[in-house]
Amino acid sequence: MIEIKEFTSLLEAEFEDIQPGTLTPEMHYREITDFSSMHALIIIAFIDHQFDVLLKGEDLKKANTIADLYYIVQEKTKQ
After folding, report:
1. 28: which strand partners?
2. What is the CATH classification number for the domain harbouring 23?
3. pLDDT band at 33 (very low <50, low <70, confident <90, very high)
4. At the N or C end, where does the chain have fewer CB atoms within 10 A?
């Protein structure tokens, strides 16, 4: 598994409207400017493509920060 900073940078690159260096692991991902269901789908697709992990709506609901997403992916890759 990659480090959390790299995870954050890769996720950030998925969003065309975010300036590089904007996202941090501590940031609440729902606070991304103009966050919408499209952003949630981008996150799900990114994690599926990069880590072969399928997030469910339940996973997104219990995650608040980008770090939370990272740790969910880590946990699911161990299974």
Report:
1. 65
2. 1.10.1200.10
3. confident
4. C
pTM for this prediction: 0.93
Domain hosting 14: range is 4-78
- Total number of domains in the chain: 1
How would you write the chain as a 3-class SS string?
CCCHHHHHHHHHHCCCCCCCCCCCCCCEHHHCCCCCHHHHHHHHHHHHHHHCCCCCHHHHHHCCEHHHHHHHHHHHHHC
Tokens of 31: 């606070």
**Residue 72, token pair as written in the block:** 């969910």
